[in-house]
Amino acid sequence: MLRVTLAQLRAHGARVLASCLTIVIAVGFVVATLSLNATAKAAVLQGVGAQFVASDVVVTPSDPYAEDQPLTALEPVVAALPGVAAVAGDLSTSVEVRLPDRTGATSAQARSVGSPGTLRWQHVSSGRLPQDADEIAVSDRVDVAPGTRIALTYYPVGDDASGSPEPVTQQVTVVGTVDLAGDPRAGLVPTVFGTDEAVTAWGAGSPDRLRVAASPGTDLAALLDRIAAVAPATVTVTTGEQAAQDVADSFTGDAQSLTSVLLAFGAIAVLVAGLVIANTFAVLLAQRTRELALLRCVGADRGQIGRSVLGEAFVVGLLASIVGVLAGSGLARAVAGLAGRVDSPVPLTDVVLPPSAVLAGLVLGTVVTVLAALAPARAATRVAPLAALRPLSTAPVRSRAGVVRLVLGLVVTVPATAAMVVLAAGGQLLGALVAGALSFLGFLLLAQHLVPALVALAGRPFRRLGGVPARLAAGNSLRNPRRTAATATALVIGVTLTTAMVVGTSSTRVSALRAMDAGYPTDVVATASQPWGSDVVAAVRGVDGVAGLALVENLDLTTADGSLNLTVDAVDPAAAGAVVRSQQRSPLPRAGQIVLPATLGAGLSDGDTLALQVLDDAGAPSGAAVPFTVRVAPDSQSPAVITQADAQRLRSDLEPTGAWIRLADGDTGAQAAATDRISEALAQVLPSSDVQGIASLRNSLDQLLTTMLLIVTGLLAVAVVIALIGVGNTLALSVVERRQESGLLRALGLTRGQLRAVLAWEALLVAGVAAVLGVVLGTGYGLAGTASVLSAEMPVVLAVPWGQVGGIVVVAALAGVLASVLPARRAARTPPVAAIAD
């Protein structure tokens, strides 16, 4: 039988090619999805946590704002431990730079480059890193060519009588550009890099963190324990990999949830691709019923027939899976190349093909193909040889088997759908995914009853559209409900997957964008140590791209018992409400209220009363205590906020020293340019001002979101191609089964064109019903998938892109008609006498 199996593969190349193509596309889809998911995760981690890539251990202070930081004293202690090859203390401070093409100074963050070695993480795109105190490297955001001389102003640490050291201006030379591509934080503020000595002179104090490289062969767990043993309780010791992941999570925030979305869609793709393969391969094996029966007649027993079919399925599945893995890898590189052409903060340059993706593709294609062959092989071997030489008659829908499928379908679909809704609303991804898979399997059991009923309903007006061919097509579509259901199911699967992804990605995008507005409600935050007069306000309002401004007063408060000190922003709620983009996480206060982030309001809850006093310039409580009603903002990262009217009750001589600024809506470049213009305008009237372009970070996260969704969108057409092959196979089988019927119609006077029209109208009717049904199912599954991933972190917004959904319906219907072309040509070219004689 092995020789017979191999001979069957050689003799029926076209049939094998059709099944192989389906497996190749499905496996390629899965491998590309898993590969691009791993690539996107690696790119985000590499960009945001670049400084931790070469670090084995990272030591950070538990409270980075505490006055006494232990890292300076801890650094030599860690360096002397066994197994430590190198230690780098990362330094940072704020400086101002006067760029050649700008009239004022620009606030920038200065960071140390450390000593040469494995812990130096900066990669230069041009020039080199600084080596002397009067040299700096800049980020791409600064956009200054190497060799340029610029002025850098800093405030050195000092204890003069006023407590405010005089600024020092130093001429420095730009010697290189550091590549920060892939880090969404790069657009927040410009960054300059200097030597450790220079950054210390510019005002840096204790290191922000210690990064440790282990000696070769050192046990990492043991090294962690040794460092933790000598470190005080006020620091956190973790691995470099975990530190990179923590930084990525903290800065990408809600956009990081897209990783889970992609994984969920990848799992759905595996399931649906398996269903498509099973459906298509079952149809192809059904075409061999007579052939298998003939083998029975010449002496093959049931076991040999079964092993032959399964052996063929194994060979086809394995070979096609190997090709599918290669195709998926190529597809991932093509999509990454396409994403690399757009302006994205996450360059997908190094495509990652994890071994798990290769193994998943091989196992998926091979195992599913073999499983798909089980049912047809069993059906063929259970028929008597002589009877099997005739076409198998399918059981009617109302038979005992049909009733069992109906009852089983209802028993599976109803509770599984209810469970999916409940679990998705509760943010239970794994449970919702399992329930959704069971729900869809239940629908497939109901398809033999549901699809013919819908086709019959749609066929009533359909008969009037195309004359005789349309009437014959409507009748033919109901003559064999099982065949109609099989044809429609192949397309329903593809359309459901496509719609689920379109609706899911659209809803994810809208939900995440609103969450980002909530997490970063203010476009630009500007502060200064001097009051903002009318000239400063006029200068900012006059900047092109500024849409609104709300002045902010700042004061230090303490509780009556001295247990809690607060730095509070005071705003006019009406003015601030017109500036912030969302109050979901950071609500604005009402009169008599104080809005506290959860980090400051530990132990407090909404409605509690907090009596506060103002701290004078010497840091002592002053004036009468004023009671405030607490409102806790659980997810807010902003400082405490009160109204300006309440601030005046605490201290009547307050003046605004900052502003929340809203930029005009636009792309990332336009808003970044507006932020730069604000910095220049303020530098001319308030040289000590600090401008933080929060909009740049938010827009970078938006671009990250767009890039990751582009990965999914680039794969949507694959599901339609798979469905098209399935529809073509089922229509081809339908033509074979109706060969005599088609010959009789031709003999009665139906022309070749009319016969082709009958099949085209039938395909359009069935495909149209399948497309609409798939859109309905896909919308529900897409929303459920999005909710299961995001509902625990943010409100989920249903966003149905009606244009794309309508396009899916049209494309699916046309795909069904296209799939009928070759079978229709074959039927029309067969002479009537030859068809009837068969």
Report the strand count.
Answer: 20
Termini separation comes to: 29 Å
Total count of helical runs of at least 4 residues: 26
Which of globular, elongated, flat, extended, rod-shaped describes the shape?
Answer: elongated
Write the layout of secondary structure elements.
Elements: H1 2-11, H2 13-48, E1 57-61, H3 71-79, E2 84-90, E3 92-98, E4 106-112, E5 124-127, E6 135-139, E7 149-154, E8 168-178, E9 191-194, H4 196-201, E10 209-214, H5 220-230, E11 235-239, H6 240-252, H7 257-286, H8 289-297, H9 302-340, H10 355-381, H11 385-388, H12 400-425, H13 429-462, H14 467-479, H15 481-519, E12 524-527, H16 534-541, E13 546-559, E14 565-571, H17 573-577, E15 593-597, E16 609-615, E17 621-633, E18 640-643, H18 644-650, E19 658-663, H19 668-685, E20 690-693, H20 694-713, H21 716-737, H22 739-747, H23 752-790, H24 802-819, H25 821-829, H26 832-837
Parallel strand pairs: 4-9, 6-8, 14-18, 15-17
Antiparallel strand pairs: 1-10, 1-11, 2-10, 3-4, 3-7, 5-8, 6-9, 7-8, 12-19, 12-20, 13-14, 13-16, 13-19, 16-17
